[in-house]
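User: I'm designing a mutation panel for Dephospho-CoA kinase and want to avoid disrupting the core. Could you give me a predicted structure to guide residue selection? Please restate the sequence first so the numbering is unambiguous.

Assistant: Good idea. Sequence first, for numbering, then the predicted structure tokens:
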Amino acid sequence: MKIAITGTIAAGKTTVAILFRRRGIPVFNADQYAKRSLYQGSVCYEKIREIFGEDVIGISGDIEPKKLAGIIFQDNNKRKQLNAIVHPFVLEGMQKFFATNHHQPIICAEIPLLFETGWDQYFDRTVVVTCSEEIAIQRMMEERNYTRQEAKARLSMQIPAEEQIARADKVIYNEGDLKELDSQINRWLGELRKDIRNGKNAN
């Protein structure tokens, strides 16, 4: 069974993914894999360099994520150009990950832009991790040193939480402590394993 983990920014997607890994479930991280596209020698490197120029190249010769982010958050067309290069690269990596772990009863992938890319079609279940907007803003301010305005800008660039929730098979509300979050995952994994035993791998 393939499970996609997505949700709103600062809701705790990565924490949920970590809790899945602790249970021995393999998890593909789309954002981490995407960073490989910025290294010299990657199939994406020269294409990105051609569009964004030398200003995004760091001392090491690799493309610097922060410099790239500073551009794409201000220029929607540039963001679309970057996504058109990087998304196929990440999708190929994810498919290889699935093939490598095909023997596992449950495989997960953490994909922030799951619905935007249309990749939900590759999964049997979709988990949306969410929290209130104010909690998300506070987390971004405390953990990422964003201003309130910057945090709101990041939230505005995503599919609204309400729409993500409507498209989810499972919603995890991460507004409490780690113990509460862990309990939610335990309960849901119990349901999933029951479905697998009963042969219910599809939505």
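For picking mutation sites, this is relevant: The chain has two domains: 1-26+106-196, 31-103. DSSP finds ten helices and five strands in the chain.
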